[in-house]
């Protein structure tokens, strides 16, 4: 049995708490805004709610990974690391989907902000199905690359006690490439959106309420990804701070970012309308049909 330090338990408990909070908030968001208020009918929120759906299952996988990894380290003969790895893999599928989805949302928000009338005119004719299928394929690609191209097999070779150690170099390279793709897209278009919103604020221009809320939700995602995921990863990889023995620090920070996003989204969605729509457009333009 491995003796785990206090720091490990602190980070693990924090990770479980913030992840459970994230899942609870996301379930509340879907129940209230997707099922009760039917907000999913509005173009602005369709992919955002899909991202919330992915966050629920990513969070479930995260909680399973945090709990299972602790039992694996303490009682490996009862809970082998294969169980922990499968929980991590399950969460990774939805993490990959929500990350590409967040990048797509950032691109969509930029288009909607720069040319709202043209965007809604053409967007209503664009089915969500091809985009959803692409997002689902990014999650499926995790298994295809891992078990197909990288020839990964279970059970795991004894010795590894974390997800990163167990994955083969082939898959690590693939994960790094996809992270650069969706991370750079999200960061670039979030920066463009931020500058555009600053210009609109400087000019004191009015922005339609749903557009404003969707923009802020997208910006929150981009900012939290940078603060809670990308920057810590760069710092830890450069060995500026040694977190060896501190437990799943990167995962805890990532889930903390998701909790912040969920809290901000609940706060934004509960706000009353205070702005005036600058241009009139028919409901058929605003709503999208699958």
Automatic annotation (TrEMBL):
Q: Where are the transmembrane segments?
A: 6-31, 52-75, 95-117, 129-149, 181-202
Q: Name one Pfam family in it.
A: 7TM_GPCR_Srbc
Q: Which UniProt keywords apply?
A: Membrane, Transmembrane, Transmembrane helix
Name the InterPro entries on file. Answer: 7TM_GPCR_serpentine_rcpt_Srbc (IPR019420)
Write the protein's name.
Serpentine Receptor, class BC (Class B-like)
The organism is Caenorhabditis tropicalis
């Amino acid at each position: 049995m491995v003796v785990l330090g206090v720091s490990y338990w602190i980070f693990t408990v924090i990770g479980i708490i913030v992840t459970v909070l994230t899942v609870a908030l996301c379930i509340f968001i879907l129940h209230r805004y997707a099922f009760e208020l039917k907000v999913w009918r509005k173009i602005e929120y369709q992919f955002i709610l899909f991202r919330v759906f992915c966050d629920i299952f990513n969070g479930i996988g995260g909680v399973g990974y945090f709990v299972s990894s602790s039992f694996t380290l303490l009682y490996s003969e009862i809970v082998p690391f294969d169980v922990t790895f499968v929980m991590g893999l399950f969460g990774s599928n939805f993490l990959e989907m929500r990350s590409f989805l967040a990048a797509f949302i950032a691109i969509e928000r930029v288009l909607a902000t720069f040319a709202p009338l043209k965007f809604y005119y053409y967007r209503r004719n664009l089915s969500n199905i091809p985009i959803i299928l692409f997002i689902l394929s990014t999650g499926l690609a995790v298994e295809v690359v891992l078990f197909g191209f990288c020839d990964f097999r279970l059970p795991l070779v004894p010795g590894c006690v974390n997800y990163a150690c167990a994955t083969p170099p082939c898959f690590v390279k693939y994960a790094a490439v996809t992270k650069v793709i969706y991370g750079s897209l999200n960061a670039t278009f979030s920066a463009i959106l931020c500058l555009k919103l600053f210009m609109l604020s400087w000019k004191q221009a009015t922005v339609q309420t749903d557009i404003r809320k969707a923009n802020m939700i997208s910006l929150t995602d981009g900012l939290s990804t940078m603060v809670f995921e990308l920057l810590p990863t760069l710092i830890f990889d450069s060995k500026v701070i040694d977190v060896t023995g501190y437990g799943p620090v990167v995962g805890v920070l990532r889930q903390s970012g998701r909790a912040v996003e969920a809290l901000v989204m609940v706060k934004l969605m509960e706000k009353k309308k205070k702005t005036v729509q600058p241009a009139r457009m028919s409901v058929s333009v605003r709503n999208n049909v699958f």
